[in-house]
């Protein structure tokens, strides 16, 4: 054995250990900010600096493989940190990837909140252009800065409740951007059995002096956010929307034109016929909902929504499960792990072996 042999063996061992360490680099959640141009016209004080969280799986650092990306839209009132801070999404993803529930994947969350809770993922003259932010800014931002498979077949979108509504809406309008959609208990699928105008406190909506005044009444806050998104009026301070109804004494007077405009813009079932061809382009579409949701409107409207998908020949999967309002979404046995991630494992394209 030559004098160089031990040195060579040591060098090879060191290289092997270094390679193993790089391959075993732990997962991490990175915080980032995007200076957006989509909120210059916002009338409600939306910051153009939008916060983002990016989950990068184990082995990303030091690796070369390009990865598929999941965009996750949180529920009403939840910002980009909620999946990680409230539901330990990092640990769930780590375990799911290690167990083969899904392959290595990047997951992105962003702050879509407004002073009233959320902007409903649409362009609005009152709240700003949330659709443009997602499609024209956020997706290109992620593709430019991370090692992604930058194409619709390797890009999925999912969401929880209000986020599920947004996931379906983006899938309808942008099948060139997102190839697969999973909506967890989406809301706003259709009118259900109770009229929208019967929900909010109309006296409060008519007398509020600031947006903060609405936070004393949950339905007034939620429905005002819907009106800001779908009936915006930047000249109508302080709430910046045209009300589809008004109270006069004991009577509630409905504005038929505004109510029709609201329904046509907001309810997902009204979009199916217009975007059926787009929905048929998706590689996969799935939605689910809990049958014990205390708001019966959600259940009824989702059942009708799936029948409309059938009517227009849109392929999809749907499941009504035993559960309530978001109580089976997260956790080691929640539907994100048992259903959503396996769905994307099947419907997202990964890099071929020779491209890794």
Automatic annotation (TrEMBL):
Species for this entry: Sphingomonas sanxanigenens DSM 19645 = NX02
Keywords in alphabetical order: Signal
Protein name (Swiss-Prot/TrEMBL): Esterase
Gene3D superfamilies: alpha/beta hydrolase
Domain of life: Bacteria
Source species taxonomy: Bacteria, Pseudomonadati, Pseudomonadota, Alphaproteobacteria, Sphingomonadales
Secretion signal, residue range per the UniProt entry: 1-23
GO molecular function: acyltransferase activity, transferring groups other than amino-acyl groups
One of the Pfam families matching this protein, by short name: Esterase
